[in-house]
Amino acid sequence: MKIRFRSIKAIEEFLDIVNRFSAEIDIKSKRTTVDGKSMMGIFSLDLSNPVEVTAIGNESDQVYEAISKYAA
């Protein structure tokens, strides 16, 4: 799922949401992939463009539903 962060507050809210789930979250920007539950990891990416989020695990569908408001 492609998402876009429009503010630091949006990143904080995103982290609050994804950390409720046991699913592994990967975020990819160009050739770099980081842990989607890591604020430092997210801030290391180029956030001027949409990023690709991948949820892995039993709760992946619930994760995508919960973060759908960030869809690019």
Automatic annotation (TrEMBL):
For this protein, the record's PROSITE patterns field holds: PTS_HPR_DOM
Matching Pfam families: PTS-HPr (PF00381)
Q: Where is the HPr domain?
A: 1-72
The lineage, from the top, is: Bacteria, Bacillati, Bacillota, Clostridia, Eubacteriales
Name of the protein this chain belongs to: HPr family phosphocarrier protein
The record's annotation in InterPro entries points to: HPr-like, HPr-like_sf
Q: Which organism is it from?
A: Eubacterium ventriosum
Q: Which Gene3D superfamilies match?
A: HPr-like
Q: Which residues cross the membrane?
A: none
